[in-house]
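Q: Sequence in, structure out?
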Amino acid sequence: MYTRATARTLLALAAGLSILSLTLPGCGPSKTEKALAAQAAAPLLGSEAIDREVYDTLGYRLAWSGFASFDRIHGGKLKALYPLGDIVAVQDTLGSLTVLRTSSGELRWAASLGDPTDTYLGVLRQGPRLLAITAAAATSYDAENGTLLNRQNFARIAASGPAKLADVLVMGTVSRVAFGHLLRNGQAGWAFTMTGPSTIDPILASADSVAFPTDDGNVTIIDPGIGSLRGSTRMFSGPGSTGDAGDGAYYIPSLDQSLYAIDTQTAKQRWRLATDVKLTRPAFFAPGATGTPSIIIIQAPGRGLLGVDAATGKRLWLTPEITGDAVGIRDGRVLTFDPATGQAANVQLKDGYADATVTLSNVAQLKASPKVNGDIFAVSNRGEISKFIAR
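A: Exactly. Output:
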């Protein structure tokens, strides 16, 4: 009988297209299953050709291309791309996950992670394990072969993606509580009452602190090991997007039209840069190099790409023609990408000059790993995924 589980199994097989040719006489799938497998594989067979010259202009060359397996039969679409060391994972909106080898693009495994009605908040690496995080639980899989190892339920329903320090997951809720979940035993570690709901992801701001914004504009610095308060400060409005950290500070865009720098140990405000637009795009910390200060890069909607001195909050440059967000940095340039238009650019960190601007076709997400001098990974809404390395 054809079931939802059968469909997902077929989707996993479709990701490794060669597997479909290994059917033994008399032992193959039914006509219905064959038709569904063909339906799942059909979008992948028409993979768009990659314009290598475009990536060459940005300073990268193609290393490999592969495919992710989405639950297309039930309407699965691209959710997120996760470069995780020696593997890269692609997740769809219904929970199906495809895991490829970073070195070669070879399929390791593909599977459905559970109920498609779950709220999926992230995929993390924990040594040889892969952790799929939903609002209710952390489910652990063998990163090599996808074997289900265990499921740990949270004491509360999470609303923000996790920050992780060692074996502690730190997450926010809409019920004004931040909590730490202990992966070593599956137990609740601690809970901390916040001033409001937390739906923007916290980040590991230093080796011993997590920066936690709340939707009402409070920023709290917490020791993730024990849940103790380091300090807190307030913005005039809630966060506009996710922040970044570096040089001992947490940089967070706000709906009050300002970019803030907050000390990761004391939570005191280091500086505030006021703009004339609500900052709704993520902040990106670019560490300093010889002759170049550390810079915060953020897209100011309708204004352009903004470069800010991380130490002082002084505006260094504004490049109006660049509409994308920062992806990664290499050789004194920041790579930006705008999924709405396909615009990708190399922008000089020292002065904001865009020395290369191209259009990437059929790219929904572009990520660098690591973000400094790393490879880049591109994935389309159809599931084509490619890795590019520096020329």
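The radius of gyration is 22 Å.
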